[in-house]
UniProtKB/TrEMBL annotation:
Keywords: Protease inhibitor, Thiol protease inhibitor. It comes from the Eukaryota. Signal peptide: none annotated. Residues 44-106 form the Cystatin domain. Belongs to the cystatin family. Phytocystatin subfamily. GO terms for molecular function: cysteine-type endopeptidase inhibitor activity. InterPro entries: Cystatin_dom (IPR000010), Cystatin_sf (IPR046350), MS5 (IPR006462). It comes from Ananas comosus. This is Cystatin domain-containing protein. Coiled coil: none annotated.
Amino acid sequence: MRKDTSMMLHKGEEPGEKMNLMDYEYSSSEDDDYVRTDGLENFDSVTLVESTKAAIEHFNIENNTSYKFVKIERATCCVAAGFEYRITFQAVDGEAEPKTFQAITFYWIDCSITVDFCRLKSSASS
């Protein structure tokens, strides 16, 4: 039997209640509200670091900035023809304090990287 991969169960939903991924919007509070896979612990993974650097490069191009990757704070990975990463990381622009970013990237089996988005993580108070 073919598994339906277009639906995912979210924290707080009853079994059988599913959400269509096409309707899903990644929120700034997703770190707290969304249950995907267990978080990664090896932040030195070459594919994860390359994906994170590609994400901040994408952000810099889109926003005419010059942030540099500092460190990964949190990441999850889903494997399917490559690695889909959901990454929370820090980057710094010059001498300023590091800022926290969120990104979704896909590291394909041919070693190419697609950045779905990269943005500054909103603060919990806003």
